[in-house]
Amino acid sequence: MNQFNPTDLRNRIEKLGDLPTLPHVVQKLASMIGRPTVSTEEIGALIEKDQVLSAKVLRLANSPFYGFPSRISSVAHAVIVLGFNVVKGLTLCASAFSMMKDAGMDQLWRHSLGVAITAHLLATKLESKNPEELFVAGLLHDIGKVVLYVKWPDVAGSIKGAVQPGSDRSLFEVEQELLGLSHADIGGCLANAWNLPVTLREPILYHHAPMLAKEATLQTAIVHVADILVKGLACGNPGDDQVPPLSPQAWEMLGLGEDSLTECIAKASTEFATIDDYL
Fold first, then answer.
1. Quick one: average pLDDT of 92-100?
2. Is 48 left (phi over 0), alpha (psi -120 to 50) or beta?
3. Is the predicted pLDDT of residue 158 greater than 50, yes or no?
4. What DSSP designation does 244 have?
5. Are 250 and 224 a contacting pair, CB within 8 Å?
6. Contacts of 36 (CB under 8 A, 6+ apart)
7. What separation in angstroms does the CA of 15 have from each of 11, 31, 147?
8. Per-residue pLDDT tens for 5-60?
9. One-character DSSP codes across 179-206
10. Rounded CA gap, 74 and 50, in Å?
11. Is 139 helix (H, G, I), strand (E, B) or coil?
């Protein structure tokens, strides 16, 4: 029986106005981008008003995972090179990382960054139109956990108490049992509240059930596969030691052979060594 009312939890999500920096900046960005005359300079200037946030966005944009030949020196430049949705996502990631860091959740950030790296590699291998957006989707896929563990200690305490080391129950299963909704559901609600595009929203909402995605089907399958690979490679710790089951349909959708997969895993393992530079 659920210990928490899902409707109450959804109401809590809708009232998350106290997430540091995040909603104000993102809502402003969403309203600005709707204007046909908005410039990249205006978007950059808004983000750069928060010096800590803009520094983190630029740090991610200049990470070796993207591999741009010249340094991205301003947020406006990042918008031109990476696209608005990616910079908007990096803004979210930077704020989420601040929350994780303050709460001592470095291992969740490490896992999230590992999934971002792997999703970017898989998307590049599949010649996706926008592998940078997959990097952001990977970074944000567990954003619901940040809310659960940072903002709702009462809820988090119940979940942690039910997930014992060596248990055969996953964090995802315990969340659904106790709450009636999971961190993926919470992440999906946040993605809606922040007006994220479907290419980021569906991978967040359906990374444990990729075949439920309706529009961003390939992006969701990539994040799902990346999440499982990173769990298997033990990069970071998202909250339990269970490796979730791989969706065979999602794997088939990627259409990668064994050699391609081996190559991606080898590259990901090498790049995981640089993760500490971003912690």
1. 72
2. alpha
3. yes
4. P
5. yes
6. none
7. 6, 19, 12
8. 666 666 666 665 444 444 466 667 666 766 778 787 888 888 787 777 787 778 77
9. HSS-HHHHHHHHHHHTT--HHHHHHHHH
10. 13
11. helix
Q: What is the DSSP letter of 246?
A: P
Tokens of 39: 């410039």
CA torsion through residues 45, 49, 55, 57, sign: negative
Higher pLDDT, 230 or 149: 230
Average pLDDT over residues 149-156: 76
Average pLDDT, the chain: 80
Q: Tokens standing for 83? A: 């696209």
| Token output for 115 | 């999934």
The dihedral built from the CA positions of residue 205, 206, 207 and 208, taken in this order, carries a sign that is positive
Q: Which of 107, 66, 98, 95 is nearest to 231 (CA)?
A: 107
Q: What is the pLDDT of residue 279?
A: 55
